[in-house]
Batch of 2 targets.
Target 1
Amino acid sequence: MAAREKIKILILDDEKHFTEELLEFFVNAGYEAYESNSVKEARKLLDKQRIDLLILDVNLPEINGLEFLIEVKEHYPEIEVIVVSGQGDMDTVILAMRNGAFDYLRKPFRHIDIQMSLERSHRFVQLQQRLKHVEEKNSLISRSLENKINRQFIGTSQKIQEVLEAAMTAANYSEASVLITGESGTGKENIARIIHYMSNRKEHLFCPVNSSAITETLLDSEFFGHKKGSFTGASFDKMGFFEVSDGGTLFLDEIADMPHNLQSKILRALEEKVITRVGDTKPIETNFRIISATNHDIKHLVDERIFRLDLFHRLNTLHIHIPPLRERTEDIAPLLEYFVNLYAVKFNKQKFRIDEEVISILSYYEFPGNVRELKNMTERAMILCKGNTLGIEDFPVKIDMKLIPGRQLMPIDLKAKEADLIREVLRNSNYNQKASAELLGISRDALIRKMRKYDISISKTEV
Ligand SMILES: Nc1ncnc2c1ncn2[C@@H]1O[C@H](COP(=O)(O)OP(=O)(O)OP(=O)(O)O)[C@@H](O)[C@H]1O
Ligand SMILES: [Mg+2]
């Protein structure tokens, strides 16, 4: 089997914590990444290493980042460059774009912003396709990916099983728009990815977009792409989200925040499946599928005329609602176990045991942040826990224990205690049911019923 070829990324920034954090993100995301905190180091690396993508901070202390960008573009024209700038540095950004930078990010930015930027890079798309092709040849990708995804969506409750079934249906109808609703952290994006990777679109891109995170003035160019020279700073042709998602899935996250004028443009693109880049007249066909998500009451926004009714109908061909975690408490135990194993591997810890009490107490917790909150909570607990058993004291909800009425917790413990007590009394009375019933203060029939319930039998040898 050929070793997997990876996209190589170099990060150049004088702030060590910044390069370290990005490096970790890229490595976790499956790229091969390098960091350098000075131009000298970066030059050395570029000299001995093939680099596909450079993340370049333009505010470097030693040399103007723009000069370095020009130098890189001259010596290594095939390297895509994403520049990073501080707030209020738009002039530099425009100059950088003119000098061949592919995209820019303003600090602070989120990982998802950089991921999106990467996925739109032309070279990235090309490389991605080539890598997929190589992996396909080894017939690795589909199966490993499918297994991975299957394993990643955890839950045994009837409600979550229904969500998964709906996701499978959506995967089979890969032209239909899907709207996913649910509170924050319930797993909407997860389900969107599952639908994509289970559908016949899986060989193409899954393109996540949060329209509220894009500056108003750049919306058109981001969604539709632009032609070189169409506005200041447009120094090359660029594909927009619709085009990048050709054959694949465009995931529109938090659609409730989408500006009104973009709503009508999206509706048109969705109906016609043809777009034109900003500054161009040539129509481009693109076969994308839209999966959208929101944690708002979208119907209410339609009533308020904040969201267009016609677009809502278009997006809502299939609707999947993910119930909050507090309405499917059976999922807490398997999710907790999954996250514990996940972090045990990540933090290089041995196997952890979870105290039963943790699960019974967590099932009374509201989980306003749903699965994400449970995940973060588990991560924190795993970091702070000294031994190898996670107890309720390792979870911050212990403060809320006072709020849990003692009575509510009783039946859980009581059942186990009751069975133990019956066994003990039976043993002590030499398995005489009448005497045991008397000792327990219940009738003999009641005792027999309870013995059946708790599966307590008296074999001949025991009598
Ligand atoms: N059933 C599940 N199994 C495993 N992990 C899950 C599950 N549901 C959610 N997660 C994890 O919880 C976190 C939050 O999920 P996700 O980002 O999909 O939520 P979301 O509904 O899109 O939230 P938001 O509305 O805040 O964007 C992610 O790390 C995700 O992997
Ligand atoms: Mg989300």
Note: Confidence is low (pLDDT under 50) at residues 135-144, 407-412.
Target 2
Amino acid sequence: MKLRIGIIGLGRIGKIHYNNIMQRLPEAEVTQVAELRRDGLPTDLPFVEIDELIDNPDIDAVIICSPTDTHADFVERCARAGKNVFCEKPLDLSLHRIRQTLQVVQETGIKLMLGFNRRFDPNFLKLRSLVEEGKMGEVQLVKITSRDPGPPPLAYLKSSGGMFLDMTIHDFDMARYMMGKEVVQVYAEAAALLGGEIEEAGDIDTAVVTLKFEDGSMAVIDNSRKAVYGYDQRVEVFGAAGMAKVDNNTPDNHQYFNEEGAQASLPLNFFMDRYTESYLTEMEAFIRACKDDVAVPVAGEDGLQAARIAVAALQSVREGKPIQL
Ligand SMILES: NC(=O)c1ccc[n+]([C@@H]2O[C@H](COP(=O)([O-])OP(=O)(O)OC[C@H]3O[C@@H](n4cnc5c(N)ncnc54)[C@H](O)[C@@H]3O)[C@@H](O)[C@H]2O)c1
């Protein structure tokens, strides 16, 4: 029998999950959708009010893709209704609220998976498996470049919690995932170099963050909200026995040369293109965990740890010093 899924929020990311389930994951189906704004969406979607979706005994699992400031509330309501939940990152902007939500998850015994999709990207999976096989020896340094092609709209920025909790949180999770260790210290430099709406919203758009892990190993992350050449997503892992890295994916790998120089294709434009495969694989993993009643591969605790690093990074920028976790 197919896993019956309800989706809350059918914006940029909700549509990706909806399409993957309906078109490419035959073991599940989306049977209900709760969405406040229906303009531009097909009218034949199974729209319902949110309470109806959460309380529906014929829904097995819920995918939460509404704005960040709704996540904790919706996770708790789903948990109390006995539904397994896949929730987009971050769980909330407040660590206290995240801990409260994880408490409800624990008490109700539901499964909660966080949408750290980059762990499921085939390139990063390969990198992680090289680390696990010991090919780099003891890992000493992880270097992550993570730059968006352009900033999100102001309305999104306002409920996003700022760049560290919205965007860099993926990189904090990637650093933990690659290292397989916990972060003990965070130091961040950040600025609003693009100015405009981002600065007016009190947010930042450019940052360098250094992380120190429990054994003294390190990670360095650099971010920008605007890379004019596309979505720049690179990771390098350096250790005592070698180095491995992942470069950007491009639509093709041609190179053109003439007397003026060389030319190649730019990186794939944004997350919908670059991480297509990862969204499918993460959802497949969630559906499998629900159907086989096994642990989800990215837990609520991973959401808490990444959010702790994000909050510490912000504190580091404000106080101009490293923050111990
Ligand atoms: N994992 C990723 O790569 C990734 C990528 C983008 C966004 N996200 C996360 O997903 C969430 C949504 O981001 P987005 O870019 O899709 O935003 P979006 O604004 O495109 O979509 C959000 C949708 O939720 C709807 N909505 C708002 N309140 C609602 C409610 N109470 N009930 C039902 N629907 C409601 C809105 O009408 C909108 O259509 C954010 O938390 C964001 O951090 C994750």
Note: The mean pLDDT is 97.
